[in-house]
Amino acid sequence: MIAKSFNQRLDRMQWHPTAVPTREIVDGILGQRPAVDLRGVGLTLLGAILGILIGVGLKGMVMPGTLWGPSSGLLGVLVGTMCIAGFVLSLPMAALGAVWHQRRPWLLPVSAMNLLMIVVILLS
């Protein structure tokens, strides 16, 4: 049987304008809250911190007056080498994170946030 009018559809559902939902229905709807998944927060935070350190190190390499900036000696060479190595490793790590996101799901948030923080700091 096909209901052709709005009232016929309401009659098929046995709905009345004064009907209120039962307590069980209200509790079922309000009680179902999605659980917060905090598993990836630590990895994302680790990637952000590493990206910030690498980005600040790279930016400080060209700014005079920083401890590891131009003509700073051995400290500048060590910090500069580590920051350049971190940046060079961040690029393939981000590509591998995108490719291997099914096999290694932890790699994508770390590498994406790492590269994002490096780019943001270098562009600021």
Describe the structure.
The chain has about 120 residues and is mostly helical. Helix content is about 65%, strand content about 0%. It is built from five helices and no strands. It has helices spanning about 5-15, 25-30, 40-60, 75-100, 105-124. α3 (about 40-60) packs across α4, α3 packs parallel to α5 and α4 (about 75-100) packs across α5 (about 105-124). The longest helix has 26 residues, at about 75-100. The chain is rod-shaped. The mean pLDDT is about 85.
Gross morphology: rod-shaped
- Average per-residue pLDDT, rounded, comes to 85
Gyration radius over CA: 28 Å
- Uncertain regions spanning at least 5 consecutive residues: none
In terms of DSSP E residues, the strand content is under 5%
Fraction of residues in helix = 55-70%
Q: How large is the count of helical segments? A: 5
The counted number of beta strands is 0
Reading the helices and strands in chain order gives HHHHH
What is the straight-line distance between the termini?
Answer: 67 Å
> Oligomeric state of the chains?
single chain
The main β sheet shows up as: none
What is the structural class? mainly alpha
Keywords: Membrane, Transmembrane, Transmembrane helix
Transmembrane segments: 40-62, 74-100, 106-123
Lay out the secondary structure.
Layout: H1 6-13, H2 23-31, H3 41-62, H4 74-99, H5 107-123
Helix pairs in contact: 3-4, 3-5, 4-5
Give the structure's gist in a few sentences.
Keywords: Membrane, Transmembrane, Transmembrane helix. With 124 residues, this protein is mainly α. It has five helices and no strands.
